Structure formats: C-alpha cells, structure tokens
Amino acid sequence: MKNKELIESGNLELYVFGLLSEKETAEIAKIASEDVDVKNEIVSIEKSVIALSSSFAPTLSAENYSRIKQKLDLDKDVIQLKPKLNLSQYIGWTAAAVFLLGCGYLYNLQQNNLGEIDGLLNEKQTLEQTVSAKEKLNNQINTSYTVLKDENNIVVKLAGQAISPTSSAKVYWNNKTNKVFIDASSLPTPPDGMVYQVWSLKLAPVLTPTSIGLIDNAADKMKYLIEVDATVGAEAFGITLEPAGGSKTPTMEQLYTLGKV
Known about the structure:
The chain is an alpha+beta fold. The protein has helices at about 5-10, 10-15, 20-35, 35-55, 60-70, 85-150; strands at about 155-160, 170-175, 180-185, 195-200, 210-215, 225-230, 235-245, 255-260.
C-alpha cells in the first residue's frame, strides 16, 4: 500500500487506538520510522485524540444554560420548605448539575452535527452540478462527432458579410431528416441583449426568409454544434444579429454571414 493510500485508508487512526493486529501494527510502525509524512500524520492523530479528550465536558454558555432551564421548567415557583441539609439533598443537587451539563453537551454536539450535515449536503450539491456539467459536455461532444461523420449531411459554408468580413459559420443540413446544426464558433460573441438569428432562405421567385432558431453564448455553447429547427427546401442560409428574443424579419444591416446551398 502506498504511503498516501495508507494515510487516506483510516488504518492510521486504528493504529493510534491500538485496534490493529500485531502484524499490521508492526508494519505501520516500520513505515512511520521511514516516512516523514506517515509519522507526522500519526502525531497529528494523537494530538487530535488528546484535544478531544480534554474537551469532552465543555462548559455551558449562559444562553444555553437559560434555554435548558426553560425546557426543564426550573424557573417556576415552588413551595418553600424548611431547608434540611443531609446527604440525599446534596446527591440530588449534584445529579441535577450533572444532568444540566449533560444536556448542554448533547445540545452542543447536536449543533455541531447539524453543521456537518449542512456541509455534506453542500458538497453533494456541488458534486451533482459538476457531474451534470460533465455529462452535458460529453453529450455535446458526442452530438458534434455524430453530425460531422453523417454522410447525409450537406455542409453549407456561410461567408462573412460587410458588417463583419472575418466572420464565418457552417450549416450541417441533413437531406433525410431535415435536421439543421450550426457551427457558430467563428462568430464573435454577441453583445449583451443581442442574439444571433438563423434564417432559412428561398431565393426565387422572391427572397423568403424563415427563422429557424436563435443562438446566444450561454454556457459557452457557441463552442459546439447547435441544433436549430429543421427546414425543407432551403436554397441559402443566413445569420443576422438581432435583439434578444429575435425578430420577425432579418435586419439586413446586421447580416453577419450568408451562403448558398
């Protein structure tokens, strides 16, 4: 077992508490004599055990003491009796004091446990978000690979126009399913409040544009192929920059790319 694995295995804690077999104890003692990290970890565990022992009976704060008294109804009026000092009375007082200390200890322990549970729940949520993001990325990569390898896809190159000559894009149009995917990775990031709008164009007898989808850069999705609405009978494709939500007709002054099928 590697020394890092040994430290993370929990066997060092069992070693400190004397719960390992003689053979395992001898092995760890030998490793500790040769490895500084293992030795330091054992010293750290021993210090933690000593600290835990010294704090086993924590003191009660005034606030916690008052809460416990209220729970036990210790502030209610009682019938005054003539004091009679005897051994049983002292025992009763001592038992009450021990009981209060025990309640305070359990209360503090409960609060610590609740804090640990909250921490674990937060870690679980973070892990789930990370896993979800990785699954989404993996799906995007797989989709892109499938589209690029599909022989039924027609690739239409869209060239940059006057407003942005260096821009470009590609359309992958499937001639069997009519599905359309856009490679918008060579377009500049749209400004705040603006989106790219993809148009399927019929050129004759008159120019007829049909919106087939919007593209923003949420979650950097412009890095990957983006699926938009399917289309039939397209003779060209164009992409314009439009206000968020899109436009009913293309703003020709904001035509970024255009290409014929």
